[in-house]
Design brief:
There is one protein chain. This protein is of the alpha+beta class. The chain has one domain. The chain has five helices and five strands; from the N terminus they run αααβαββαββ. Strands 1, 2, 3, 4 and 5 form a five-stranded mixed beta sheet that branches. Strand 4 and strand 5 form a beta hairpin. The longest helix is centred in the first third of the chain and has 59 residues. The protein is rod-shaped and about 105 Å long. It starts with a helix and ends with a strand. The model has no long low-confidence stretch (mean pLDDT 83).
């Protein structure tokens, strides 16, 4: 007789377990899709960071090449004069507006800069640089500044070099522009 009761209780089931199971399955699907989307976004962010780091390292390498070129040229007055005689593209006197960062965003990097022959792998284009000779302002004791006698006797305007480099990452959308200054 117990068997008959058991069979009758199975016939009264309304499928509540199936409904709960489907709801739980639906929730797990949503959680899985969110996890997939999140990991995809993290992968994109990591790729962008890698691209930016490539551009930064390329720009740093171009700065080092330009600094080494200036160091070797500054050992001789003739070499530095030859370097700034106007015959080398991307090396010259200070350009109007070049101290503003917007200037370098629209600058003709392909036509008016020095290309490096570094052969860097993984970058969309090799880094380039520009060297400018900048005339500083001579300080004179008559200007009213707190300058001692020895420094007032030297009224020659100081001169320094500004190096601007541009590095591109693995894609053309990752660009880094760096500046460096160097004494003669």
């Amino acid at each position: 007789m117990k068997k008959r009761l058991y069979v009758k209780s199975l016939q009264k089931q309304g499928g509540a377990t199936l409904l709960v199971g489907l709801v739980i399955l639906l929730l797990m699907t949503f959680i899985g899709l969110a996890a997939i989307r999140g990991s995809g976004m993290q992968e994109l962010m990591a790729g962008n960071m890698r691209d930016r780091q490539l551009a930064l390292q390329a720009a740093e390498a171009a700065l080092r090449v330009a600094e080494a070129r200036l160091d070797s040229a500054s050992e001789s007055e003739d070499e530095i004069t030859t370097l700034f005689d106007g015959s080398t593209t991307g090396v010259g006197e200070q350009m109007d507006g070049s101290s503003a960062s917007e200037f370098w965003l629209v600058y003709d990097w392909e036509g008016a800069s020095v290309s490096t022959a570094l052969g860097l792998k993984g970058v969309a284009s090799q880094p380039v640089y520009v060297v400018e000779r900048i005339e500083g302002t001579a300080w004179n004791a008559n200007d009213g500044g707190a300058i001692d006698f020895a420094s007032s006797a030297d009224d020659e305007a100081p001169q320094y070099y500004r190096i601007t480099s541009r590095g591109v990452g693995g894609t053309d959308s990752a660009v880094v522009i760096l500046h460096s200054t160097s004494d003669p």
